Automatic annotation (TrEMBL):
Stored InterPro entries: aa-tRNA-synth_II/BPL/LPL, Biotin_CoA_COase_ligase, BPL_C, BPL_LPL_catalytic
UniProt GO molecular function: ligase activity
Signal sequence, start to end: 1-21
BPL/LPL catalytic domain span: 79-269
Gene3D superfamilies assigned: Bira Bifunctional Protein, Domain 2 (3.30.930.10)
This protein's name: BPL/LPL catalytic domain-containing protein
Alphabetical list of NCBIfam families matching this protein: birA_ligase
One Pfam family here: BPL_C
Length: 347
C-alpha cells in the first residue's frame, strides 16, 4: 500500500483510546438498484469481506437490518442516502456499520471484491487511519467514509485528493442551497485538510496500490458535521449564523458529495485538472500566501520568502521567489506542518 504524494494524512478529529483487542463488527450491505443488491447478496452468501485484523464480521443485507438499530435516529439512514444520490457509478454500493475499526481498511483490503465506487460509512470509528500508528476514536457526529476509485494514468493519481476536497466543499454548498440555508464557507487547506472559520473540521486520506495495470485508489474522508468538540463543526457554525435553521444531515452531504465527485472526476479524466483549477483556487486558502523556504547555499541554509501561485502539474505547490524565479515546493520531511521547513526546487 503506497501513500500518495504529496500528502499529509488525516489528523485525528477527536481523541485517542487504547486499541481494542478482538472485536466484532456488523456490516450492512445496501445497493441503489437491483444490480448492486445482487452484488450484496453474493458478497454475503460467499462471505467475501474480510478485515486485516481478527475482527469478526457479520454481513447483513439492508432488508435484514430492521431489528439491529431500530429507532436509533442518530445512525446513518441508508434509505435517505440512497434516495439522495443520482450517480451512475459512485456511491451506489454502500457498506454501513454502526461501529467499525476503519472504513479505509474495509474498502482498501477488499478492493477487488467491491464494485468500483463502493463506499463504506461508519457512525463510530475506533481505529481511524492517521499519519502515525496512533489509534483514534471518532465519535458520533462525524461523517466518516471511504470509497474506491480506479485510475489508469499514474501521473495524475496524486491529484485525486484535490478533486475529492473540491467535491466536498461544493457538496456542502449545494446542500445549503437546496435547503435554503446560509452559505457555509468550507475551505481547503492544501494538501488535504478542510477548514471552517480557521479551524480544522475535516480531512482526506488517499492510498493506492497498483494491480493489473490499474491504480486502485482508496479515498477516506472525515468531516465533522455535528460534533462541536474539540474544535467546531458544520452545524455549530450554521446555528451561529442562523439559530433557527434546520441542520445538515450526513446522508445529504455524502449524497451530494458523490454527485459532485462523479462530475468532477469525469472532467478531470477527460480534460485534466486545468478544467477545475479556477474553482479549486477559489476554494483553497493559499493564493498569494507568502511562505518561508530553506535554500541550501554551500553548507549554509538560508531562509527566503516565496509567494504561492498555484499547483504544478505533479500536484506540488508552485511558487515565485522575490527574484521572479518559479519553483516547486517540497516538504523537508521533518515537519508535521507542510508549510514549515519547505525546500524549493527550480523548475
Ligand atoms: C479482504 O481483505 C482481507 C484482509 O486484507 C484479505 O485477507 C482477503 O483476502 C480480502 N478478500 C478478498 C476477497 O480479496
Ligand atoms: C430514513 O429516511 C427515509 C427516507 O427519507 C425516511 O422515510 C425514514 O423515516 C428515515 N428513517 C429514520 C429512522 O429517520
Amino acid at each position: 500500500m503506497q501513500k500518495l504524494s504529496p500528502l499529509i494524512s488525516l489528523r485525528p478529529l477527536s481523541f485517542s483510546v487504547a486499541a481494542t483487542a478482538m472485536d466484532s463488527c456488523v456490516l450492512v450491505l445496501c445497493g441503489k438498484s437491483s444490480v448492486e443488491d445482487d452484488v450484496a447478496k453474493r458478497l454475503k452468501n460467499n462471505n467475501l469481506l474480510k478485515l486485516p485484523d481478527d475482527t469478526q464480521l457479520s454481513l447483513l443485507l439492508h432488508s435484514e437490518m430492521e431489528n439491529l438499530v431500530k429507532d436509533d435516529c442518530d445512525s446513518f439512514n441508508l434509505s435517505l442516502f440512497m434516495n439522495s444520490i443520482s450517480t451512475a457509478r459512485f456511491g451506489r454500493f454502500l457498506i454501513w456499520s454502526p461501529r467499525l475499526s476503519s472504513t479505509h481498511d474495509v474498502v482498501s483490503h477488499n478492493f477487488s471484491e467491491l464494485p468500483v465506487g463502493s463506499v463504506c460509512v461508519t457512525d463510530i470509528q475506533f481505529k481511524g487511519r492517521g499519519r502515525t500508528k496512533n489509534v483514534w476514536e471518532s465519535p458520533k457526529g462525524c461523517l466518516m467514509y471511504s470509497f474506491t476509485v480506479e485510475m489508469e494514468d499514474g501521473r495524475i493519481v496524486p491529484l485525486i485528493q484535490y478533486i475529492v476536497s473540491l467535491a466536498i466543499t461544493e457538496a456542502v454548498k449545494d446542500v445549503c442551497d437546496n435547503k435554503g440555508l446560509p452559505y457555509i464557507d468550507l475551505k481547503i487547506k492544501w494538501p488535504n485538510d478542510l477548514y471552517l472559520n480557521g479551524l480544522k473540521v475535516g480531512g482526506i486520506l488517499c492510498t493506492s496500490t497498483y494491480r493489473s495495470r490499474k491504480f486502485h485508489v482508496s479515498v477516506g474522508v472525515g468531516l465533522n458535521v455535528d460534533n462541536d468538540q474539540p474544535t467546531t463543526c458544520l452545524n455549530a457554525v450554521l446555528k451561529d449564523i442562523s439559530p433557527a435553521s434546520i441542520l445538515l444531515k450526513r446522508e445529504e452531504i455524502v449524497g451530494a458529495f458523490f454527485d459532485k465527485f462523479e462530475k468532477f472526476f469525469d472532467l478531470f479524466i477527460d480534460q485534466g485538472f486545468k478544467s477545475l483549477e479556477e474553482l479549486y483556487y477559489r476554494t483553497w486558502l493559499h493564493s498569494g500566501q507568502r511562505v518561508i523556504v530553506e535554500d541550501k547555499i554551500g553548507d549554509q541554509v538560508v531562509q527566503n520568502v516565496v509567494t504561492i501561485q498555484g499547483l504544478t502539474s505533479s500536484g506540488y505547490l508552485l511558487a515565485i521567489g522575490d527574484d521572479y524565479q518559479m519553483c516547486e515546493l517540497h516538504p523537508d520531511g521533518n515537519s508535521f506542518d507542510f508549510f514549515k521547513g519547505l525546500v524549493r526546487r527550480k523548475i
